[in-house]
Amino acid sequence: MKSIKKLVLSTAIAALTAGAAYAENIKIAFIDPLSGPFAATGTNGLKQFEYAADALVNDKGGILDGVKFEVVGYDNKISPKESLIQLQVAIDQGARFVVQGNSSGVANALTDAINKHNRRNPDSQVLFLNYAAVDPALTNDKCNFWHFRFDANADIKMDALTDAIAKNEAIKKIYVIGQDYSFGKAVAAAAVSMLSAKRPDIEIVGNELHPIGKVKDFTPYARKIVSSGADAVITGNWGSDMLGLGKAVIENGFEGPIYTYYAAGSGITAAFGEAGKGSIRLISEGQINPPASDEAKALYDGFLARFPDGNIDMPRIFNTVGMLAAAMEKAGTSTDAVAIATALEGMTFPGYFGGELRMRAEDHQLIQDMHIGMHTNEGVDYTYDSSDYGILVESTIKNASADIATTCKMKRP
Q: Which of 38, 229, 267, 345 could pair with 239 as two cysteines, CB 3.0-4.6 Å apart?
């Protein structure tokens, strides 16, 4: 009987010890689509966060006194309403850091909700680490102390794209098309404004929006693009909408460059294949081909060893994790949101995939190099989607739009 009691007691102590260790983990809530038409994009993003947390923090013994990162996925079905439900679930389960990127509509809902939560709940404040939602408003009129963006916003990307387009004298007519929500509208507005300033001779022969995630056949749009006589296309489409639009445009005979924000990975590269070679252009951060450094190559090799069918198509995810860990080390805490946010403000950091990063304190917009790459099967060290194709960097814009204006009026706690 004594041996049984002793066994029960030791088991209970072990359970409590394990529970205490588990509680020390820093929960990072990944709130993005894990089902539905954009599931491939969300799932690959989650894989990248999980690997980054392990490779950059956990496998190195954690931070501070051995604290480790635990990334937990929450399926928001690309819905702002569902995202708010998942946010509350995540907070109730102890998450104090939220990462999200797919849909600026979702990001706008989250940043408002987190701002309100933090005012009402000073003992459970949350930081929002935005890794891909690029509506410029998020670091302008809607900026807040709790939100940090690790991707370049739509205006920064368009500034880089239109610089390249302006140098191409063969482009006289452009068709702009995108998804009908805040991000798509921001892309269109920036394209029209910047092209007008840099190449007033270029004619915008089409400027339209389509429902996000609902168009099954993009052929009617593609035929309008071809019949317009456009020399080039600009689109901010992502996920299944990028694939559907791009394939329809190419299949209907369009031969000019298609300038995109998100035409790589998550099945898109493999689906384009040979048809996209030489026509698909991508504006992005982080240099994959050629690898920016031996460290970048080692990270990608390690990722593929764990996820053979995955892609590092968002290098900014690694920068998000690395800068969060560095901010915690600098602040000397893994729980004080105000101290960690303050440490992030103005931080400079060596990007894992090239270039120095700077988190601008005025609006929490990360300033970094931008790259314009081409979809090809030539000269690429790393391909996407287990295909023969990847994105090869053609040109680099150092510290893109570092002096871009912001209307942010940051209110700090």
A: 38
> Which tens digit of pLDDT belongs to each residue from 182-217?
899 999 999 999 999 999 999 999 999 999 999 999
Total domains, the chain: 2
Q: Which domain holds residue 377?
A: 155-289+369-397
Residue with tokens 């252009």: 281
CB 102 within 8 A of CB 42: yes
Cα R_g (the chain), whole angstroms: 22
User: Please, how many CA atoms are within 13 Å of residue 297, restricted to the half-sphere of its CB?
Assistant: 8
Pair 187, 154: CB distance under 8 Å: yes
Render pLDDT for 112-161 as a digit per residue (tens, 0 to 9): 999 999 999 999 999 999 999 999 999 999 999 999 999 999 999 999 99
Selection from 221, 167, 166 nearest residue 191 by Cα: 166
Our CA dihedral for 38, 40, 43, 44, rounded to 10 degrees, sits at -120
Same domain, 363 and 377: no
Question: In this structure, what token pair is assigned to residue 360?
Answer: 């601008």
Residue type, 72: V
In a domain, 170, yes or no: yes
Domain-located, residue 217 = yes
User: Are 360 and 380 in a shared domain?
Assistant: no
Q: Are 115 and 146 in contact (CB under 8 A)?
A: yes
